[in-house]
Amino acid sequence: MNLLVGQIGHLSVILAFAAALVAAYSYFQASRGRALGEEDASWLRLGRGAFFVHGAAIVSVIVCLFNIIHAHRYEYYYAWSHSSNHLPVQYMISCFWEGQEGSFLLWIFWQVVLGFCIMKFNRKWEAPVMAVFSGVQLFLVSMIIGVVIGGVRIGSSPFILLREFLTDLPVWKMNPNFVPKDGTGLNALLQNYWMVIHPPTLFLGFALTLVPFAFAIAALWKKELTAWVKPALPWTLIGGGVLGVGVVMGAYWAYETLNFGGYWNWDPVENAVYIPWLVLVASLHGLVLWQKRRTGLRTAFALVIATFVLILYATFLTRSGVLGNASVHSFTDLGLSGQLFIYLAAFTVLAVALLVWRWKEIPISAKELNAYNPELWVFVGATVLCLGAFQVLFTTSIPVYNSFMGLLGIKTNVALPADQIAHYSKLQLWMGVGVALLSGIAQIMWWQRNTKETLINSLTAPTLLALLGTALVVLLVRYNGLTISPAYVVLTLAGLFGVLANFGTIFTLLRRGVRLSGGAVAHLGIALMLLGVLASSGYSSIISRNVSGLLYSREFTEDLNRDNVLLWRNETAPMHGYQLTYTGQYFEVPGVPGYVDKQFLYRTDDDYKAVARAPITVDSKVYYKTGDTVNILPENTYYRINYKDQKSGEQFTLYPRAQVNEEMGGLLASPAIKKFWGHDIYTHISSVLDPRKEKPWSEAKQSVLSVGDTIFLNDYFAVFRAVEAAHETAGLNLQKGDLALQADMIVYGEKRQYHVHPVFVVRNRMVGSLPDEAEDLGVRITFDAVDPAKGKFTFGVSTTQKDYVILKAMEKPFINLLWSGTLLMALGFGLSVRQRGGKGVLADTSAEAEAPAEASGQAVRPQPVG
């Protein structure tokens, strides 16, 4: 047992906590009673030094935690419960933040990085802002400190020993230093490259929401009620872009990993991230509104504070265990619910109290708004976003309400909606309509003087084109025998209007020689995303309908029997314009491109090792020779499905994967996707023969044959061609003096021939056999005996269920609009960050000042020059 690395890690956590406490107090004292930028130098130096120590301690914790994972130190509970000996390095990185403690540590690390950025780029605001930063770090580090004071446990340490966590196991009484040889491994659905990049992006987005919040609290504290907007705005733009990309990353991960056929399931954990992003986007508009038009400052304060509070609330939702029965992927409760609630309450009370205290002092605009003022539409857009966020927040919080009432001794039976997707989508659809329309209108109004005449002239072209495009869409939908609801007609119209209006704005600006508007690009992306959601979700069609007239199994659900196609191995079956052929099972072999046919591998007692039964080659390159030991990743079995278009003859191959995992409810299936420009073919396995169970073979029927004889095998027959010495037979490990004979038999199936090579072995005067099988046919042949005097050979023939897969396939039209819209949205945020960052936001009279780059669809125009 290596206890040193855990001790260093735990001491580093304690040091990080103490340093954050010193930094928070020092920065507070440096700024206390002094004007902004006139901090006490000695306290400021102490605060900086303490935060640097805090950062170094956090890096030390990270190094220690990754060490116990990478070095397979299973004496520690965190390493044992999240990793295993056979995980590739990238998934060991994923193990780091799979657990609660590691994800908290990732969040803390990003805030350390952002704290150093504040110290470098926002020196004037350093003391009050870093006081808030350090205070937040103090609370976050307390979540992983893992100490007991006065019988009260504070935090959960990632360095707890396995024997301290599982104290009831009798093995500790026999051997206190027992260390397991392997860990439990990483959840199968998390063994994906998105697990490596999605959580860091999402937690960076979480951390970035702290920056505008810290500026807002510092402004309220120091009574700098307007100056904070300029330095906070670029950080808010970055946060909106990163968090938005993080949300869509999770959607794409679900799309290509989960088999429910979509990218968003309105799971409470998904909602917990979506809600603060909507409010963050609304707050961004409030900040730009004040920066450009000197109005809406109170709105900006309230929404910036609400964003960070909602991030804390999301943390409470996902980590307190309150969603345990409502979400499929929330964290389990580590007994930190009370601590999380204190964390949430402390910053909520502090922020709201400061805001109320300074509310009357926050400047307001005396300007009256009318329909020709872009500022009015900013408030409308912010209201639309906040209403959408409130609907999701209210429903998602039902389990919290029930738990709270239960603590008060009041039993409630408020239940989540039976059909949550329909419940959320009803209002969110109309929010999307508002976003698309406002995004187009705002961009048009932003770049011109607005009168009744100019506004009508500017809106006429995109409106007429959008109406024409919508009519064409409706005709095409009905021509293809589909229906379109009035709500979808309105959303299509709004989305097309948003695309055309924002594209027109971009074209006009480029024609005038004005730099590209990040706001228009982001709004164009949002409109495309809405159209992509409408097309791919509203008109996703199942193309694997069961037209055979057969009931696959009475144990299957009606949907499974109706919406899936049965594929026997190496037999072609029709499916909605395609010919499908299931050609076998494959494994992932590290170092070998693609996948390796399972028939080329002889499995050993070690699940992660096999012996090559034939050369393993890819593009004429030999990776393993016959008899070589091959490292494999056996968790997932890949099923090779060949598609052939019946009209064009075009062919492609997909490898949907499945894993039989009883602990997670049976069959875990992940889809394979073929992408076309106008649609995706989305394929996943619904049912297979359990690859981990022994096949129920029939009792062997023996036959005595001579070379050249024919044997009948139920519906098939085989020809015994020859017997030869087996020199390199996988799995036999032949020794000197051993005798091994290999039979060469050809089994004639319905459509092809199969070579089967059973082996007869004599070792130490004992005989044995190594059977071989034609998996497609469900036939196994054993080489049981040899009569050299008569030239006779005895074979045993057993049969079992033929190999098959039951497969579901869907066609998702125009889903690329969603993903391309996401890229445009991110590009728009990036352009705005470049244009507003560094030198800060341009002056109000600049003709090239640009619209807010985010997703709600409003903007504030600069004061026209002239």
UniProtKB/TrEMBL annotation:
<keyword id="KW-0812">Transmembrane</keyword>
<feature type="transmembrane region" description="Helical">
    <location>
        <begin position="104"/>
        <end position="122"/>
    </location>
</feature>
<dbReference type="Pfam" id="PF01578">
    <property type="entry name" value="Cytochrom_C_asm"/>
</dbReference>
<dbReference type="InterPro" id="IPR003567">
    <property type="entry name" value="Cyt_c_biogenesis"/>
</dbReference>
<keyword id="KW-0472">Membrane</keyword>
<feature type="transmembrane region" description="Helical">
    <location>
        <begin position="49"/>
        <end position="69"/>
    </location>
</feature>
<dbReference type="InterPro" id="IPR002541">
    <property type="entry name" value="Cyt_c_assembly"/>
</dbReference>
<keyword id="KW-0201">Cytochrome c-type biogenesis</keyword>
<feature type="transmembrane region" description="Helical">
    <location>
        <begin position="336"/>
        <end position="356"/>
    </location>
</feature>
<comment type="similarity">
    <text>Belongs to the CcmF/CycK/Ccl1/NrfE/CcsA family.</text>
</comment>
<feature type="transmembrane region" description="Helical">
    <location>
        <begin position="459"/>
        <end position="481"/>
    </location>
</feature>
<feature type="transmembrane region" description="Helical">
    <location>
        <begin position="376"/>
        <end position="398"/>
    </location>
</feature>
<feature type="transmembrane region" description="Helical">
    <location>
        <begin position="129"/>
        <end position="152"/>
    </location>
</feature>
<feature type="transmembrane region" description="Helical">
    <location>
        <begin position="202"/>
        <end position="221"/>
    </location>
</feature>
<feature type="transmembrane region" description="Helical">
    <location>
        <begin position="6"/>
        <end position="28"/>
    </location>
</feature>
<feature type="transmembrane region" description="Helical">
    <location>
        <begin position="487"/>
        <end position="509"/>
    </location>
</feature>
<feature type="domain" description="Cytochrome c assembly protein">
    <location>
        <begin position="101"/>
        <end position="320"/>
    </location>
</feature>
<feature type="region of interest" description="Disordered">
    <location>
        <begin position="844"/>
        <end position="866"/>
    </location>
</feature>
<feature type="transmembrane region" description="Helical">
    <location>
        <begin position="297"/>
        <end position="316"/>
    </location>
</feature>
<feature type="transmembrane region" description="Helical">
    <location>
        <begin position="233"/>
        <end position="254"/>
    </location>
</feature>
<keyword id="KW-1133">Transmembrane helix</keyword>
<feature type="transmembrane region" description="Helical">
    <location>
        <begin position="521"/>
        <end position="539"/>
    </location>
</feature>
<feature type="transmembrane region" description="Helical">
    <location>
        <begin position="427"/>
        <end position="447"/>
    </location>
</feature>
<protein>
    <submittedName>
        <fullName>Cytochrome c biogenesis protein CcsA</fullName>
    </submittedName>
</protein>
<feature type="transmembrane region" description="Helical">
    <location>
        <begin position="274"/>
        <end position="290"/>
    </location>
</feature>
